[in-house]
């Protein structure tokens, strides 16, 4: 809501010296979000005066006709002689009143006016256009003051045109519909300064039984008041006065025609949207009702609209003529020949208007106000104000009749304990202060059934600690004691709220899972991975690029109705597309050696049918069954961790050659993650997209009951995936589910630290090349028994010495007993048992044996 | 010479003569002092302290002396040998130290060689800032609550006093999740949560009262991506529901957070505002921690952090609307609560000078690397 200060001052006598910024700060403190304070005449300095064109001579021979004018500027030029001014516009006649910038004037934008020679004549100033005055975009000609503008040649044009105004731009929150009007803001300004407020809606309106046009409301709860007032003999050619145009423009609306401007002006002033019909186009009584299936209406914007049974309509004998509160129909619109006008001021149901505006994508100044709730008692005053302006400015005759359909809702009454606002704030407010605040917002307060007179400081009688508050008709947002508490607190000032240190009971700190997640991040970062946070939006192509089979569950994606980008309408089921894109982006920016990780949710679409979540009550807590039903409709969203890396893991340097990033790093990253949970991972060869079929590991955890749980995959990516994502060759990646890791996480337990000497044994085992090292290692470990303290693979050899299709795995075994020094026999026995187990399980042969 | 003499005069045994012992000792000490290397010292040791050295030989003669003379001779020779041994030891130490010095200097390396062998990783500053923000409340006794990102509209809106036609609901720029059972995209009652506030409702439904929780998390609005906006961003939600809580308790929590996060003594300011899920509602500003207001009205000393406003908006808050508590089954006659929401990106931007949202979302390693493991 843009509020010109001059308009505001009509209803509250703000002291002239109050700076706009101070007023803005006070309104902010009262809860109106003033976003900007504009000074509309910034940079303007006079002498800018009213002039009357006495005569002009047309100079020929230029690109366009130029007028050399004699302009009466009264005594403003000191001499009283007419001023000679060159003007390139042609939209005026002798006798017209115009705005003259005399030499010495500086126009907005720093445009200095002087006397200068042009088109062979001396021009003593300039006749101004709307744009030159900073009043709008209209460059089509000079500003001709409408007939009847109360000004004489030589008068200062700055106050006349309202050029030195300030405009407060207020972002009105949804609860403060009343602030979408000068009236509402003026009331707050008056309260803020403790000044009297003159209500622009306090208009004497006839309440007569005689209607102005027959009308009826059909249906409950769609329209609470319906007022029609009419005029005849309106002059459609009557211009909008300058002051009204100026105010509309400052408020952000364009001037269209006097009749339309008046409806907008009254809306801005009072907050009541109005509609104006050309009465001669109406056929029979008006009916307010809901639309019927199949009804249509061509609206003012020339769009043929299919109406929804939830839309409120205004109809006449011809059918729908308006979508109520949202937009009028084309055929009944007032035009530039309309002389008989019918004004509608109504109070429609907020939620209907909200839905209709959304459904037809017709958000307008009117729908914005109806949605937030207009004053339910304002309609008669607003319609009356409009017809009075039509009469005053457009020469119309006001019909004496008034159509006034009333279907009012009962006024709400809120029981308020007078100490409640203080409890909400955490301060004790005197009861008098609470009542004063209620008075200032316009509420009616009853105690013991009696209306309290709050005009005098009120002393609360003993025992009266609860009152009944009837909020004013323009505050439909006030329905609960807390709403009233807010009013009291904001008027008393938020700055007086004290700070009380929180007294939370001793908490449990982070959960184990939460601590684990942090450790996982730190471990990966310590291992050289950099965290990224990718958008979870993916394209269908991303899954093709991963070479996922058609029936891969990762293709069962959820989709957004209104995606961020039409290219990426799907919610991710894997972290990899985002990570691989980020990796490619880094490579493109000169970092081909990058290692990235991400932890985040993926969103899975279940295999079964979808049951939409139930819309539960909000008047009570949901039952366990309702909650379970709701939970069942929410898609599974497991937490994953993934890495992707490319290029060199370690660069070449004076210490030696580079270490390329590869499949082993990706698998190790998974081990790094599960190690933080005190778990061990088993890897086995797998063929799984998007990985290289020979360089992919399926990763398993083992549950305490022995069940093996697949948590994800790691390895080198398939070369075609690498190519599709434009990644460096041999890019590797890992993705695992974190949830089972969190679930199985083990608390670490202290090991027994033996101080007896260790015994070291190396064994080299020859196995078929395809035998997984994991199997050999598992066998060695099982065979060696409890004396084995650790086992480490330190070499893998393939070559002529052992024959084709075979490999030699060299392990360092370390034995130790908790309670004694091991004998040579014991050590040999344990080592032989390990080798035997490996031989039995994998066919391993002791190398050199 | 005459007849054999039964008495034996020690002075007659030349090697044991005092002058002779002193001479042998002096020669030895001179040789030791002159030894310029460990090898020369070894030769000197052999010559003057070895088995064949004069004093070793003299020592053997002592036994031939009459008992009365042995003690004095033994003392004389022993003293000389001890002196030599100590000199050898001292010289040995000096020469070894000299050798070590020489050898270790030869092993010297260029300690300025760079060793950027294992490039270091980093956590994303959004993660670490959110953790730090949450930890301030965890230290006060709060727990960290969580919720799903694809959320039911009931949790995201209805339970938070935003019924279907509420103006605030259409102002939320919601991403709607399509009904997976429909061939054409249509709304399903599921959304990407537009704020972390649904976690309030979840925490109330899942815990015993009183409840003190914070919920850091990812949120979504169908905004454009530009320097200050992103369709995907993070919030930290905070909530307390207990007996007798009001705005003063909220302010206490916010003040504690601000002084922990940005420095003690910073003032805060509440401005009335509107959120459907709180009533009364406020926007919170804190005093600019850089200029503390000194830049206001001083164009010569502008402050980039607060734009010379003196205040920085940090989030929205309020007393939880009793309708929200009722929808979560809380007895509003007994319990009341407060809640706040603070933007994590914004906090990172003004607390650490992040300039552009693109840097936060694009995953460029240079950005996160600047922040390391913790903030
Ligand atoms: Zn500052």
UniProtKB/TrEMBL annotation, chain A:
Residues 754-847 form the FDX-ACB domain. This is Phenylalanine--tRNA ligase beta subunit. It catalyses: tRNA(Phe) + L-phenylalanine + ATP = L-phenylalanyl-tRNA(Phe) + AMP + diphosphate + H(+). One of its GO terms (cellular component) is phenylalanine-tRNA ligase complex. Tetramer of two alpha and two beta subunits. Mg(2+) binds at residues 477, 483, 486-487. Keywords: Aminoacyl-tRNA synthetase, ATP-binding, Cytoplasm, Ligase, Magnesium, Metal-binding, Nucleotide-binding, Protein biosynthesis, RNA-binding, tRNA-binding. Residues 409-499 form the B5 domain. It holds the Pfam family tRNA_bind. Belongs to the phenylalanyl-tRNA synthetase beta subunit family. Type 1 subfamily. Binds 2 magnesium ions per tetramer. Its EC number is 6.1.1.20. GO terms for biological process: phenylalanyl-tRNA aminoacylation. It is found in: Cytoplasm. Residues 42-158 form the TRNA-binding domain. It is an enzyme of class 6 (ligase). The keyword Transmembrane does not apply. CDD domains: PheRS_beta_core (cd00769), tRNA_bind_bactPheRS (cd02796). Its cofactor is Mg(2+). Gene3D superfamilies: 3.30.56.10, Bira Bifunctional Protein, Domain 2, Ferrodoxin-fold anticodon-binding domain, Nucleic acid-binding proteins, Phenylalanyl-trna Synthetase, Chain B, domain 3. It comes from the Bacteria. GO terms for molecular function: ATP binding; magnesium ion binding; phenylalanine-tRNA ligase activity; tRNA binding. The keyword Protein biosynthesis applies.
From TrEMBL, chain B:
One of its GO terms (molecular function) is magnesium ion binding. Its main location: cytoplasm. Keywords: Aminoacyl-tRNA synthetase, ATP-binding, Cytoplasm, Ligase, Magnesium, Metal-binding, Nucleotide-binding, Protein biosynthesis. Its EC number is 6.1.1.20. Binds 2 magnesium ions per tetramer. It comes from the Bacteria. It is found in: Cytoplasm. Pfam families: Phe_tRNA-synt_N, tRNA-synt_2d. GO terms for biological process: phenylalanyl-tRNA aminoacylation. GO terms for cellular component: cytoplasm. It is an enzyme of class 6 (ligase). It catalyses: tRNA(Phe) + L-phenylalanine + ATP = L-phenylalanyl-tRNA(Phe) + AMP + diphosphate + H(+). Mg(2+) binds at residue 279. Residues 135-349 form the Aminoacyl-transfer RNA synthetases class-II family profile domain. Its cofactor is Mg(2+). Belongs to the class-II aminoacyl-tRNA synthetase family. Phe-tRNA synthetase alpha subunit type 1 subfamily. Tetramer of two alpha and two beta subunits. NCBIfam families: pheS. This is Phenylalanine--tRNA ligase alpha subunit. It comes from Allonocardiopsis opalescens.
């Amino acid at each position: 809501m843009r509020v010109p200060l001059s308009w505001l001052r009509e209803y509250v006598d703000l002291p002239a010296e109050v700076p706009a910024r101070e007023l803005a700060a006070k309104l902010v403190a009262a809860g109106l979000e003033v976003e900007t304070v504009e000074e509309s005449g910034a940079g303007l300095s006079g002498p800018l005066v009213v002039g009357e064109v006495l005569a002009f001579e047309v100079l020929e021979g230029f690109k366009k006709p130029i007028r050399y004018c004699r302009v009466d500027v009264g005594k403003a030029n000191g001499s009283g002689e007419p001023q000679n001014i060159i003007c390139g516009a042609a939209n005026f006649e002798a006798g017209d009143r115009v705005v003259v910038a005399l030499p010495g004037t500086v126009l907005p934008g720093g445009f200095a006016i002087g006397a200068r020679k042009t088109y062979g004549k001396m021009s003593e100033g300039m006749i101004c256009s709307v744009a030159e005055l900073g009043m709008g975009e209209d460059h089509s000609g000079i500003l001709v003051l409408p007939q009847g503008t109360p000004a004489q040649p030589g008068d200062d044009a700055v106050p006349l045109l309202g050029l030195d105004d300030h405009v407060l731009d207020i972002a009105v929150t949804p609860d403060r519909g009343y602030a979408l009007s000068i009236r509402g803001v003026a009331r707050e300004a008056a309260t803020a300064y403790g000044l009297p407020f003159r209500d622009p809606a306090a208009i004497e309106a006839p309440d007569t039984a005689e209607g102005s046009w027959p009308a009826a409301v059909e249906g409950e709860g769609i329209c609470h008041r319906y007022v029609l007032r009419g005029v005849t003999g309106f002059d459609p050619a009557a211009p909008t006065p300058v002051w009204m145009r100026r105010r509309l423009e400052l408020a952000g609306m364009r001037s269209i025609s006097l009749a339309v401007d008046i409806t907008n002006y009254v809306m801005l002033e009072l907050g009541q949207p109005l509609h104006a019909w050309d009465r001669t186009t109406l056929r029979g009584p008006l009916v307010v009702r809901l639309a019927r299936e199949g009804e249509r209406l061509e609206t003012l914007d020339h769009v043929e609209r299919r109406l929804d049974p939830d839309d409120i309509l205004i109809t006449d004998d011809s059918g729908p003529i308006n979508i109520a509160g949202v937009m009028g129909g084309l055929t009944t619109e007032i035009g530039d020949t309309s002389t008989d006008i019918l004004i509608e001021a109504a109070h429609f149901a907020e939620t209907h208007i909200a839905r209709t505006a959304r459904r037809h994508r017709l958000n307008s100044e009117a729908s914005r106000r109806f949605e937030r709730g207009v004053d339910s008692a304002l309609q008669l005053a607003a319609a009356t104000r409009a017809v009075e302006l039509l009469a005053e400015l457009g020469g119309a005759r006001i019909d004496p009749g008034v159509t006034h359909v009333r279907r009012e809702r009962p006024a709400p009454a809120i029981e308020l304990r007078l100490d409640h606002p203080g409890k909400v704030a955490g301060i004790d407010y005197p009861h008098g202060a609470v009542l004063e605040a209620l008075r200032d917002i316009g509420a009616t307060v009853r105690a013991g059934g009696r209306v309290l007179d709050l005009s005098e400081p009120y002393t609360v009688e003993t025992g009266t600690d609860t009152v009944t508050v009837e909020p004013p008709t323009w505050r439909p947002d006030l329905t609960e004691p807390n709403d009233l508490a807010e009013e009291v607190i904001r008027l008393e000032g938020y700055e007086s709220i004290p700070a009380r240190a929180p007294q939370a009971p001793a908490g449990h700190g982070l959960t184990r899972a939460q601590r684990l997640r942090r450790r996982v991040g730190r471990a990966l970062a310590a291992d050289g991975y950099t965290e990224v946070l990718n958008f979870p939006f993916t394209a269908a192509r991303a899954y093709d690029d991963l070479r996922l089979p058609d029936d891969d569950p990762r293709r069962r994606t959820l989709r957004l109705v209104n995606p961020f980008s039409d290219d990426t309408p799907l919610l991710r089921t894997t972290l990899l597309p985002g990570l691989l894109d980020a990796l490619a982006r880094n490579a493109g920016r000169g970092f081909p050696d990058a290692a990235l990780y991400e932890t985040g949710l993926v969103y899975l679409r279940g295999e079964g049918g979808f049951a939409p979540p139930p819309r539960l009550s909000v008047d009570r807590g949901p039952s366990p069954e309702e909650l379970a039903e709701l939970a069942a409709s929410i898609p599974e969203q497991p937490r994953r961790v993934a890495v992707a890396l490319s290029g060199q893991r370690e660069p070449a340097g004076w210490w030696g050659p580079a270490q390329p990033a590869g499949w082993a790093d990706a698998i190790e990253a998974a081990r790094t993650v599960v190690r933080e949970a005190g778990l061990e991972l088993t890897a086995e060869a797998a063929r799984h997209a998007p990985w290289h079929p020979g360089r992919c590991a399926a990763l398993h955890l083992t549950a305490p009951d022995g069940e093996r749980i697949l948590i994800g995959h790691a390895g080198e990516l398939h070369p075609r995936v690498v190519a599709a994502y434009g990644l460096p060759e041999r890019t590797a990646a890992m993705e695992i589910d974190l949830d089972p890791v969190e679930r199985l996480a083990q608390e670490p337990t202290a090991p027994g630290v033996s101080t007896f000497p260790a015994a070291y044994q190396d064994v080299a085992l020859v196995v078929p090349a395809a035998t997984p090292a994991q199997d050999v290692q598992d066998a060695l470990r099982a065979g060696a028994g409890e004396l084995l303290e650790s086992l480490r693979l330190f070499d893998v050899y393939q070559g002529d010495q052992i024959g084709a299709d075979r490999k030699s795995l060299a392990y360092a075994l370390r034995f130790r007993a908790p309670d004694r020094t091991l004998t040579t026999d014991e050590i040999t026995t344990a080592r032989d048992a390990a080798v035997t187990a490996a031989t039995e399980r994998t066919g391993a042969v002791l190398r050199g044996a | 010479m005459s007849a054999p003499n039964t008495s034996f005069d020690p002075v007659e045994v030349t090697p044991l003569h005092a002058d002779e012992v002193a001479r042998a000792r002096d020669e030895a000490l001179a040789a030791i002092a002159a030894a310029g290397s460990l090898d020369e010292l070894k030769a000197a040791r052999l010559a003057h302290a070895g088995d064949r050295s004069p004093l070793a030989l003299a020592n053997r003669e002592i036994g031939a002396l009459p008992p009365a003379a042995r003690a004095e001779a033994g003392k004389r020779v022993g003293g000389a040998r001890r002196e030599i041994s100590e000199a050898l030891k001292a010289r040995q130490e000096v020469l070894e130290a000299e050798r070590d010095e020489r050898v270790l200097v030869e092993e010297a390396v260029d300690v300025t060689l760079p060793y950027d062998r294992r490039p270091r990783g980093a956590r994303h500053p959004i993660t670490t800032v959110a953790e730090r923000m949450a930890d301030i409340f965890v230290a006060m006794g709060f727990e960290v609550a969580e919720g799903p990102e694809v959320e039911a509209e009931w949790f995201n809106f209805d339970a938070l006093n935003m019924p279907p036609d509420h103006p605030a609901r259409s102002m939320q720029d919601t991403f709607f999740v399509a009904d997976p059972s429909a061939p054409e995209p249509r709304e399903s009652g599921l959304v990407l949560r537009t704020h972390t506030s649904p976690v309030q409702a979840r925490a109330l439904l899942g815990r015993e009262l009183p409840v003190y929780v914070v919920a850091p998390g990812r949120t979504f609005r169908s905004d454009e991506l530009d320097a200050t906006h992103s369709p995907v961003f993070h919030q930290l939600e905070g909530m307390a529901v207990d007996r007798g809580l009001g705005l003063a308790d909220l302010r206490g929590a916010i003040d504690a957070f601000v002084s922990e996060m940005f420095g003690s003594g910073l003032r805060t300011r509440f401005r009335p505002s509107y959120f459907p899920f709180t009533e009364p509602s406020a926007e919170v500003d804190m005093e600019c921690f850089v200029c503390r207001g000194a830049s206001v009205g001083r164009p010569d000393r502008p402050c980039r952090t607060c734009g010379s406003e003196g205040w920085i908006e940090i989030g929205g808050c309020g007393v939880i609307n009793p309708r929200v508590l009722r929808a979560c089954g809380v007895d509003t006659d007994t319990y009341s609560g407060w809640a706040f929401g603070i933007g994590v990106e914004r906090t990172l931007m003004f607390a650490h000078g992040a300039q552009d949202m693109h840097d936060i979302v694009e995953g460029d390693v240079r950005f996160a690397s600047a922040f390391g493991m913790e903030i």
